[in-house]
Amino acid sequence: MVRRIETGDGRAALAAVAAAQDSGAAPARTALATAVRYLLQLLSEKAPGHTVEVRVPPFGAVQVVEGPRHTRGTPPNVVETDPLTWVALATGAVHWADAAAAGRIAASGTRSDLSDLLPLRP
What we know:
It is built from 4 helices and 4 strands, in the order ααβββααβ. By secondary structure, the protein is α+β, with helices and mostly antiparallel strands. β1 (48-56) and β2 (60-64) form a beta hairpin. It is globular, with a radius of gyration of 14 Å. It starts with 6 loop residues before the first helix and ends in a 14-residue tail after the last strand.
């Protein structure tokens, strides 16, 4: 079972990532991992389901969005991005269309556009 990240811990991790980026430093790996997992958790709460798999390697992946359930092999609807892009998308620092145009998102499938679900406003 995946450990639930408490709101205070998630917000503290997001603040640490933002502070590091504002200072031009790379965020601490533990803060970045916690922030990514917290934001994935918020997404799964906002859009429960099993139609789209959102992957943010190496820190996490969730299945979200109501619709046909995927059970075997590679899911038909997949979104994959790096951790910093995910944090930026989920917090509204970057818009979906801009990140997609810049090649920062790999999305496949007819339901893989998450622009209506983002930002999450943690």
